[in-house]
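Note to self: user wants both folds in one dump. Writing first protein now.
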Amino acid sequence: MLGGTDAKQYIATSGKNLHTRLEGNPSFVFTLIHKFNDPHAEPIIPDHDIVILSDEAHRINNGTLAQNMVRMLPTASRLGFTGTPLFSYDNITERTFGGYVSVYDFATAVEDGATVPLFYENRSDLLEIDNPEINDELAEAVEAADVDENQREKLERDLAREYHVITSEKRLDKIARDFVRHYSGIWECGKAMFISVDKVTAARMHELVQKYWAEEIAEQEAALKHDTQQEAQERQRKIDWMRETEMCLVVSEEQNEIATFAKWGIDIAPHRKKMATRELDKEFRDADNPFRVVFVCAMWLTGFDVKPLAAMYFDKPMKAHTLMQAIARANRVAEGKSNGLIVDYIGVVKALRQALSDYTRDPDEGRGGDPVLDKDELLARIYELLAAAETFLDDCGFSLKELMAAGEFERLALVKDGADAVSGSDETRKRYGIMARELFKYFKFVEKGDVDGNAWARHDAIDAIYKLLTRRRDTADTTDIMVKLQQIIDEYIDVRETGDKGESRFDISQIDWNLLHLEFEKAKQKNLLMGELRDVIENRLVKALRDNPHRADFYERYQKIIDEYNQEQDRASIEATFEKLMKLSGDLSHEEQRFVREGFINERQLAVFDMLYKDSLTKDELVQVKELARGLVDKIQERLAQMTRWTEKPETRAEVDTIIRNELYRLLPASYPDESIAAYRAEIYEYFYSMAA
């Protein structure tokens, strides 16, 4: 749409129609370059300006059709757009469109945060596999090849030795073993793509990987017997992930492919059925979908963005812009993704360096930074972050080395001391969390052998403190958490049952605050205890505000307490804050029982009553509004019980809104003016809508 106008009316329907449109003075004309198909078309030289905006300027604006366009519109100005890297030599795009108006390259995109950095790892040298010399002839023959059987035979004839080296069983077997070990070693990094020289080789690699994947699962299960409890939990998590991981082959279809693949002992039919009946592209883009590894040769290498794709394994000769476009699959930004990883089995490093040297960040001022960094830089960043985290803990008064050297039982207490040390303020706790999360992101891309044992031990110690700080607490009962936290107040409170789902509440008036103060003074990990209490109160506040939006004053009161706590970090302020939070928690418990004191059956009736309440109500009007709140909630809940996903359908949303409107007009006291009812109606509707979300 253009300014509310349907763009279809501006699309040229044929070459002749295009010429007719251009002879006039249209605001816009949309066309594919293929409609400039008449080399003898009469030139158009209007008395007004024509600007040609060309997409895919690197590819479609330099051939015969482009020449036809220039001849037809000799006075037009041209502006080209391309997402393909530009090269410093033989730059057709620049010669066609003139100088660059703007260049946005890999390095700039990383600086802006539009893409993540890419790290490169050469595993062909590590495996000592026999790779052929990747010359231009070989690279050009296969870099974009999605070859069929006839093309494959020609490829084998022309590049006999090189092709057979790349596709030999022994070589593929060694690579498949290494892929399984490598990817299962970085299993938390994200999804993976394996690129083979052709379709058959991609299918063969898929088969080999399945075999070694099953063997790796068996080895992991056998290792469980020798693990400590903590190690066993982590290993079992990895085994579960490996068992649920799905790997798929994605290649284009060709004639007689069943017979072609059968020659190699591969049944392509199940793969083809999966490609035809499932939306594999959508599944692969979904970070939570267990389809995590795809084997390709040409499909999905360009123009297919997958944010969760973190690792690309190259076993196909590629060069120039095709290689640059392919590696860009792994640099998309995604939650929890710090970088992408390029793993090289074929020796594309030479072609990659050439492409990077040809690629220009600024054609007038010189080359830009490499978009792909050596994996050594990733490891250097890890050691840098480990040192920074250890120094930060030291500054907070805690020794990471002491935690690493501790025994199993002593370790538990020291982890709490570490968490307490970084919980001195919201700022220090936040800084530690940021530092730890950054470290964990990078560790997702390394195997056990990439860094030394001391680095892994430091990682595990930092992780233990982080997990204690961020563990989830499902309980909303302050009594339970207080009893758990070193029995500080349980002996000074009167615990009783409310009769509401068996939950316990405590009577705030029964607490002896002098004794509580003395008990808190004895607590060793005061900051951690404060964090525990805050987490519980915040969870309760979320529930309380969800049940009744008119409790916002409790949140404001909590925020004021925390702001004061963060401003003055001394012993007295910590103890005073603890008592204030305990009183707030007690008052919140008292508020949560108000619906009973007001004569309601549940929280929702009280919430609707609070929305309708005003100070000027008479005693009779108060009774009338309470009765309206009870009846309205019961009526809505009875109707909602008969509906499925009512918020998703206009008719069910309208029905709920109508119930609210009718009941308000029918039962509200006369002191409520008609013009005020719309606001009450909207607030009550929004309340039930948000509860259903």
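First done. Writing the second protein, which came from a different request thread.
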Amino acid sequence: MNKTFTFKKMHHTKYISFFVFKVLNLSFCLVTYGKTKPDTYQPILTDGSNNLAVLKNTGSDIKNGDKPNVLFIAIDDLNDWVGCMGGNPQVKTPNLDKFNAEGGMVMYKAVAPATVCGPSRSALLTGVHAHKTGVYGNRNNLKYSPKAKDLVTLPEYFSQNGYTSLTMGKIFHKHRYKDKDDDHGQWAFDEYYKTLGGLGPLSNELPVNGLPNLEDESPSSYHYRAFDWGPTSENDETQMKDYRTAKWAADQFQNRDFEKPFFMALGISKPHLTWYVPQKYFDMYPLDEIELPETIPDDLGDILDKNGKQAYKPQDTWRRVEKYGRHKEAVRAYLATITFVDDCIGVLLDGLKNSKYANNTIVVLWGDHGWHLGEKMRYGKTELWQESSRVPMMVKVPGVTPNNKKCYGVVNLIDMYPTLLELCELPANPKNDGHSFAELLRNPDMDWNFPTLTTMGFGNHRIFDGRYSYINHKSKEVEQLYDHQKDSMEWTNLINDPEYEDVKKRLKKLLPESNEPESIRNNELPALH
């Protein structure tokens, strides 16, 4: 039987109350408050134990059991190198594979709304694409975008509709300011718990991998220092930050009685650079057995600008790895880090499976964008090719999604917002850009090929319909077209092939008609105090 309810909007109040409560034998200081403005930063207290929380009163009477819970798992910089996704046959991900075997359906053709952390997360958490908000980069905080600051984010929407929202780890992209506290998105949750510390690298000499920079590399580049890997100071995964985050969540499932349904957002920071993980994970991948991703020479040669000149050149990081012959070591480090992440996911999912919430919790696991490991002569994210745009996504709806299943419908991370609202029988948010794919979860073999959008910076977009990928890079004045049925690695640019002219025209019509100017960057903000 369908259940319905009404939500009464709270009036803004001005109160602050402090108290201490005890969970899992740890005492936490908390603060409850009433909001006065949507973009006001709320006070946070810490008890000195490197853990902190924020609470707000949602005023709902809904009791746990009336609605399904949601476990919302973000993994930073993970591409399709997951066993059940088939992106790399060498990878060892037994826990993610087990999740698939037990109903965590693989959304095989999932893509990101943007190919950088900040704009991808801002888009999926607000439900609105970057070209409408101006949040194009990691230095654009949605809270200072005129077109985004008043949007109700996904955890806020659940909180407003009767859920307890809580989080640990990276969900929103972090923003740092000289004159105020870091913004981790703590304002969006009823309960915010600060991420616990972890282990650093074994060596104090950087880079740990001993890979020299090139003379012409820019020291301001993130990869100049961050593209590094090696073992941690101790060979113990239980002391790692992500493991401790997963363990915290598992303890919540095992030891907490939620009075209302929960929306729990967990952020796993690896395999984001740097790739420092315990030695045991490197040992799982003998260097002489590493196989590199398949590439072709001069892969960039057929991507030309309007003047017929090659539009892209090999990336500096790739050139560094190429010069010193370190491709196998880089791939090994990424694989090792993924297997560490898989162990963390195992702790998290086992904690849920063995709890009273197992059969009433929807699990959505996703990566915020893809990652190149030598393809297109680059390492990392950004750009709009398949390796950057495609993401891992797995969804488990107890009693609905089948075991050991891959779904080939085209979905975007931005579609998660309306999908979760429908699955939890919450009112639709009319400002959402995405399509709910709840129907696809119930019938995963149906045709589902809505063309979908990925953005990288102002005016640069990719349209993907499940077969064709059309890329329009405005700033470079470059177009690309790939037929994934014949060329899944995007080696052959078909943009000037007359046989594909109609395909190009059809997809080009789907580009955004307008692009919001970039919103203010963090370093351009006036003093906040």
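Dump finished. Worth passing along: The mean pLDDT is 89.
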